[in-house]
Amino acid sequence: MTIQPIRLFGDPVLTTPSQPIVDFDTELRTLVADLIETMQAAPGAGLAAPQIGVPVRVFVWDVDEEIGHLVNPVLNLSSDLQEGEEGCLSFPNLQFNTPRAMRVVAKGFNMHGEEVEIEGSELLARAIQHETDHLDGIVFIDRLPRELRKQAMKEIRKSEWFMEATEKGYSPEIRFSPHKQSGKLL
Ligand code: ZN
């Protein structure tokens, strides 16, 4: 297991949709172990494979002292919403009030290729939606209401990590239209 560097906003891997996992092999199990170790070292409540530069559909979480992982997720979202501060390891030191579905039922696979279903509400539901978005190349500021998203971009442009990324030649993709939810409503 290895702690991997976390890619920051501005890196194109974060705004590119990831590929489904096809082989449930040793490589996948190593990836899941690296994701968990990197998330815990950060520390964070969730981490998706593209955040360590691997564009495949798997993520991990650490919520309410339970660590989990999910491969090739498909989400069903509740129609009732929650408000709450949300952050992202790819956007250091920034948090914004981000609307999310209150509950989620996530279907997918574990790293051994067995079908699993995860039900969560509140923070776990928020984490699962946030990480699934990463697999679709969507970052949490894309989910903010328009005015707040503008304010978020201002703060991001002022941040040191973002200026460093810009010097490396990354040009972040900034979206101003709302994305459709990645799952179906319940
Ligand atoms: Zn994130």
Radius of gyration: 16 Å
CATH topology, by name, is Peptide Deformylase
Helix tally equals 4
Count the E strands.
Answer: 10
Please identify the top-level CATH class: Alpha Beta
Largest sheet: 6 strands, mixed
Low-confidence regions: 181-186
Mean pLDDT: 91
What does this structure look like?
The chain has 186 residues and is α+β, with helices and mostly antiparallel strands. It has a single domain, classed as Peptide deformylase (Peptide Deformylase), CATH 3.90.45. The protein is 27% helix and 28% strand. It contains four helices and ten strands. The chain has helices at 26-41, 122-135, 146-158, 160-167; strands at residues 46-48, 58-63, 66-77, 81-82, 85-88, 91-97, 100-101, 103-109, 115-121, 184-185. The strands form three sheets. Strands 1, 2, 3, 8, 9 and 10 form a six-stranded mixed beta sheet that branches. A hairpin with a 2-residue loop joins strand 2 (58-63) and strand 3 (66-77). The longest helix has 16 residues, at 26-41. The radius of gyration is 16 Å and the shape is globular. It starts with 25 loop residues before the first helix and ends with a strand.
